Amino acid sequence: MKKVTIFIILFCAVLGIANAQNSYWVFFTDKQNTTFDPYQYFDAKAIERYAQCGADLYDITNYPVNSIYAAQVETACEELVGTSRWLNAAGVMASEEQIAVIRQFPFVAGIQLITSDMEVAEEQITEDRVPLSTEQVSIHHGELFQQHNISGKGVRVAIFDAGFPDVDTHPAFKHLRDNNQIVKTWNFVKKKENVYEANSHGRMVLSCIAGKNGNQLLGMAPDAQFLLARTEVASEPKKEEVWWVQALEWADQNGADIVNSSLGYGKQRYMLKHMDGKTSMVAKAANTAARKGILVCNSMGNEGTDNDWKMLITPADADSILSVGAVKSLDVIASFSSFGPTADGRMKPNVVAMGVNNLVAGSKGNFTRASGTSFSSPMMAGFAACVKQLHPEYTAWQLKTEIEKSGNHYPYFDYAFGYGVPQAGYFFGEKPEVKDNLTLYEDEKAIYVTSKNPESKIFFKIVNGDGTIERYSESTLYEGRDVENAGQSLEFPKYWLKEGQTLEIWSDGQHLKHRYGQQTLPKVDSLVAAESRSANCNRRFDTPDNDIYKRGILDKYKFSFVLNTSFMIPTQWQAPGAGPLRDKNGASRSLTVAFDNSWKLARAYGLGFRIGFGSSWYAVDRLLLPADMMPATMEGIHTEKNNLKVTKFDLELFQRFFLGNTVLENWYLDTGIFGEWNAGGRYKFAGNRDKEFFTYEKSEYMLDKMNLFDYGVRLRVGITRRFAIYGQYRISNLLKKNLYSNDLPKWEVGIQLF
């Protein structure tokens, strides 16, 4: 009974770590008795921006929160993480009991659980020495900015990220340091100015806006000014939303024109129905920033290949920001790039930029390549800085709208590419080339599109009357064939369409629309129909009523079958002659099969349990048994096998820490406790005398000499869900102390295969 009690106490301790505190927004009713002087608070550049966009310096959102309210909340909670002027709220860490007390304060208007963890929108990083490429700039015709001496000069860009190590020493940023272009820094995690530490993600992001490799530009705005804010850390995930909002207010105070955020909140705790631009506080803050003249560029996320999500993350769902997807080349979407629309059907992404194998600033002064919407977003932030330099009169909304119009697909859009890849030529009066290649036909079963250029990519979508897209994709006439054997046309079955829907097609600048049931088309030639190939419309938008929008905790559940094999350490766990048992040169081992069950409760944290069945074999040199259980005589016997076999059922309770925000991408660490019910014990002696082999075996004896229940602690390090290394220590004795002065090995090390 004592051992069971200890096991329960250990289990409660594990759960206590997960459930002790949560992060909350506490919203206040008013800002009574607060004062505010914008000319003392704001940087001169911020005041200039307010005047330019017509925003009110004395807007109530700029006033500080009531300090008395904040102080009372601080005394009642575990930690006051920070306050937000714009939200008139405080972010706190608190238990449910503390929140119940805070809720009763008369100045508290409401409380909202902060339901997610920040996600760095980075797909992969590869250290290589491939030839340096400028495609991430040239895909936008960014050289036109350079030719017109447009480089972001006079524009202030804020970057929110997980850290900026080496930015103060890396040669890619020498020009920024020499010209004092890094205006201010703030580490919201540690409440200090130094941000040149922690995760290298921010260094790579900054290089996509302003980095240089010699005379080669990695981004389009090397002459912009910068505000660097560290807002993210893996060990404090529940505080990051507060820090993100605080950083946006800090950027506003210090005169930012543009913000790049290659971060976001996604599936860890949010549901897709929350991606509506209205639910998360970061989305609300991003929209507030737009009203104050700041354009936020945010990555769409890397959920494109995640069948449980696929869609954008917040704050990319905010209406007034520039949400950026990723392409691997012009008109070729990156497979990982998250899709739109928002949960309420609004068009996202707005645009796309290069996000595959981008050249970025690496470690130790080197350069490397990285992929993800983390790197397409800053490419767009640099582009926006150049446009802002060209047109300082643009408001944030105008800047966003004009960048959309510069997209190479505009006015065509879909939920993968948005309006396409923005082109610098648009801002210098260049008109995109339009090729008249497409023709539409129909017969009683389908609509057909032909193209004079079978190699050109054809984009198509079916649009509902309210402007939302039901189906969309892209293809070529020769897809899956040689160009010489290209089909005559793409075929769109009429059962795809309902009356009032519109089939839209875009290729090489030509944009065709057909309103089904209200317009007629020329009859298709029989040869064209015979040589057509079906348009594979493989992307659909499902409405928020579908199950994927109702994800609960069961959708975060993972189950797998596990095989464990291990050996006992140390090899000499009992000195010879010191007692009835001693190890035989490390030959002790175990084999277990188990079912692993886990729930991912946050980006970096989860809980789980494991149920297993198996056996351990303890090799010994001798075991003292009653005389009637020993062979009649041991004379002349040569030992072949002498071991104790213990059959057991195993239950483990563990907490899992995901290490994805470190260099150990896809790795995790488990710490847990285990209990074992020993269902069987057997002593087996095998040997030979004069080449005659015999076995002596007793099962009942050892079961009587063992404790039925034992427990211990276990540590496991794994990668993905395929392989793990574990170590464990059995706290309790396996053999009864009143019978044996020493015990079987307590330490065990092994591997797990999933």
Q: Could you give the topology of this structure?
A:
Elements lengths: L1 H18 L2 E7 L9 H4 L2 H10 L13 H10 L2 E6 L4 E6 L1 H8 L4 E6 L4 E3 L3 E3 L8 H4 L4 H5 L8 E6 L12 H5 L3 E6 L13 H10 L1 E2 L2 E2 L7 E6 L9 H14 L4 E4 L1 E3 L15 H11 L3 E5 L22 E8 L2 E2 L17 E4 L3 E4 L5 E5 L1 H18 L5 H10 L32 E5 L3 E6 L6 E6 L5 E7 L13 E5 L8 E6 L2 E6 L10 H5 L1 E3 L4 E2 L16 E13 L19 E14 L2 E15 L18 E21 L8 E23 L2 E7 L1 H6 L3 E11 L3 E8 L16 E7 L1
Parallel strand pairs: 7-11, 7-12, 8-11, 12-14, 14-15, 15-17, 24-27
Antiparallel strand pairs: 1-3, 1-4, 2-3, 5-13, 6-19, 9-10, 15-16, 18-19, 20-21, 21-24, 22-23, 22-25, 23-28, 25-26, 29-30, 29-37, 30-31, 31-32, 32-33, 33-34, 33-35, 35-36, 36-37
Helix pairs in contact: 9-12, 10-11
Can you give keywords for this protein?
eight-stranded antiparallel β-barrel, eight-stranded mixed β-sheet, 15 helices, 34% strand, 37 strands, 754 residues, alpha+beta
Biggest sheet record: 8 strands, mixed
> Mean of residue pLDDT?
84
Separation of termini? Answer: 34 Å
| Structural class category | alpha+beta
Structure notes:
The structure is a single chain. The chain starts with a helix and ends with a strand. The protein is of the alpha+beta class and 754 residues long. About 8% of the residues have low confidence. The protein has 15 helices and 37 strands. The strands form eight sheets. Strands 7, 8, 11, 12, 14, 15, 16 and 17 form an eight-stranded mixed β-sheet that branches. An eight-stranded antiparallel beta barrel has the order 29-30-31-32-33-35-36-37. A hairpin with a 2-residue loop joins strand 33 and strand 34.
